């Protein structure tokens, strides 16, 4: 039996994933968490084989959860299931230690296959991500500037380019407006941009929004 823990801040999403996995006789959801602190404590107390992890969570996001698990030498296999586009986040997650990456908009059957695959210690990615991996190995020097952004910096860029104000972004990420402003400043510096208008143009040209 494959033991699975779900980590997503939306209860409705967790229920949908749980119901999908419940149809597989060899998979059992043994716990659920809505954020970093909960999943950290849950993994300490509950033996599991696979963590199905969302990226966009308040406070410390999914990438930070993934990084902390990798640094701690955790044996749980991580399958990231996110709303973010594969071409912008999949490689980042795999490099950070995830065993697989799937879109929330994908086929539910693909989720079951993904859990089974990563539970066996193998990587699970879509053909599109597999091609991106091949391309990144063949052309490592052509990496985009935004590859150097942290998870929060990239989230801030995407949200600003989507027309959201810093106060709205701060509320969504459960951060102070000052902290979000720091992320914006760092992102502008790393991308060699001067203002939000240039940032928005960059985001559109590079498929971030």
Automatic annotation (TrEMBL):
The residues covered by the HTH luxR-type domain are 142-207
Q: Which PROSITE patterns match?
A: HTH_LUXR_2, RESPONSE_REGULATORY
Q: Does the keyword DNA-binding apply?
A: yes
Instruction: Output the SUPFAM superfamilies linked to this UniProt entry.
Output: C-terminal effector domain of the bipartite response regulators (SSF46894), CheY-like (SSF52172)
| InterPro entries found in the cross-reference section | CheY-like_superfamily, NreC/VraR/RcsB-like_REC, Sig_transdc_resp-reg_C-effctor, Sig_transdc_resp-reg_receiver, Tscrpt_reg_LuxR_C, WalR-like
Residue span, Response regulatory domain = 3-119
Q: Which GO terms describe its biological process?
A: phosphorelay signal transduction system; regulation of DNA-templated transcription
Q: Which Pfam families match?
A: GerE, Response_reg
Keyword field contains Transcription: yes
Against Gene3D superfamilies, the record matches this protein to: 3.40.50.2300
Q: Which UniProt keywords apply?
A: DNA-binding, Phosphoprotein, Transcription, Transcription regulation, Two-component regulatory system
Query: Annotated Gene Ontology MF terms?
Result: DNA binding
Which residues in this protein are found as 4-aspartylphosphate?
54
**Which protein, by its recorded name, is this?**
LuxR family two component transcriptional regulator
């Amino acid at each position: 039996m494959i033991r699975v823990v779900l980590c997503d801040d939306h209860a409705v999403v967790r229920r949908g994933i749980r119901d999908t996995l419940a149809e597989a006789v060899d998979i059992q959801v043994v716990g659920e968490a809505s954020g970093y602190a909960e999943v950290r404590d849950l993994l300490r107390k509950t033996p599991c084989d696979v963590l199905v992890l969302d990226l966009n969570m308040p406070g410390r996001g999914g990438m930070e959860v993934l990084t902390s698990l990798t640094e701690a030498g955790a044996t749980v296999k991580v399958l990231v299931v996110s709303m973010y586009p594969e071409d912008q986040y999949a490689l980042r997650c795999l490099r950070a230690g995830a065993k697989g990456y799937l879109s929330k908009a994908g086929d539910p059957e693909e989720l079951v296959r993904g859990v089974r695959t990563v539970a066996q210690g193998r990587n699970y990615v879509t053909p599109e991500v597999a091609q991106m991996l091949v391309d990144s190995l063949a052309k490592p020097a052509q990496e985009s500037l935004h590859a150097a952004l942290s998870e929060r910096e990239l989230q801030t860029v995407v949200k600003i380019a989507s027309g959201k104000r810093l106060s709205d972004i701060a509320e969504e990420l459960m951060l102070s407006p000052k902290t979000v402003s720091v992320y914006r400043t760092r992102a502008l510096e790393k991308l060699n941009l001067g203002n939000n208008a240039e940032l928005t143009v960059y985001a559109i040209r590079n498929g971030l929004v």
